[in-house]
Amino acid sequence: MVAPRQTIWPLEPHTRAKHEILKRYLQAWMVILSQGKFPEILYIDGFAGPGAYEGGEAGSPIIALDTALGFKPPLTAKIHFLFVEERGDRADHLRKQVALRTLPPNFNVVVEGGGVKFEEAFTKRLASFTRNGRLIPTFAFIDPFGWTGAPFSLVGQILTQRSCEVFVNFMYEEINRFIGHKDQVANFDSFFGTGEWKRCADPSDPRARNRCLHDLYLRQLHTPATYVRSFEMSNARDVTDYYLFYATSELLGLKKMKEAMWKADERGEFRFSDATDPNQLVLFEKAPNLPTLQARIIAEFSGREVTVGDIEKFVVVETAFRETHYKSILKTLEKCGRLNVIDAGANRRAGTFGDPAMLIHFT
Q1: What mean pLDDT comes out for the span 131-148?
Q2: Same domain for 158 and 303?
Q3: Which of 228, 239, 292, 355 could form a disulfide with 221 if both were Cys (CB 3.0 to 4.6 A apart)?
Q4: HSE (CB half, 13 Å, CA atoms) of 303?
Q5: Is the pLDDT reported for residue 268 higher than 60?
Q6: Looking at the predicted structure, is the pLDDT value of residue 266 above 60?
């Protein structure tokens, strides 16, 4: 997508899908954090835009704000919003969108704009969001039009903090177009946090270049974060438009992001797939491909004794599937004699696997 020049512009279909995922995830994240005895939480939109599109649709910062406002009963934690928009006209438009809403006393909205870049705004405001030397629990949505202004040093700084996570739009189409440009070396060094991207810039093999750049950013995120998954948005021509990278050190956060991805509105104009493992690409559809998951579970656990909790963690961390997808597979495998339940309560019904400590032997 070419960066628009006007203050507001039409909403693109792929952006609408991205915003649907963001909204679904924030509906879970805000409740989990605010009810988890965290008195304060922070949502950051590093490239916030004007807050609305040409047709009146809400932009990402307003989606986040309206999501927080829409809870019943209302959220009681102090919720900070840091919206950063470098262009002054768009920042002013965003401020007007915020002003249209009645905010409760526990909402603090800061709009940084007019020549202020994301890194500069974050550094400027960091002290006000720090308690006892730690950044308060944070979700940072980093959605640039290209690759400048989102240095990996800042991404890593956020991820090293407890209960902090990032959702990064990796604009592959634009990155791919300029990856070999001599004037962009310093910018790409900053974006990837390393000069290793240079070995990916071979123009002779587009697919290898795509995967090389993807895998490099994935590895970089894994340095500060325990769990990282990537989601690919490709168009009708099966060409990658962008990747969405989600990084966290909280297993529950990973579960909720997967839930948001599997429930993303599918309109047929593009497709989302889990692209974390190049050998295990899984398309997000209304009905998950359970035979694929079954084959992975059998390959991983055949001949072993494991708990239901072990299986669930494997599914959530190592596959594209959700924790809700595997129990029907265990039921089928038990019915056909492919697994035996070794340790379960006396009242356990066949085909039920609700106890994480239940011990299973895969034959």
Answers
A1: 96
A2: no
A3: 228
A4: 1
A5: no
A6: no
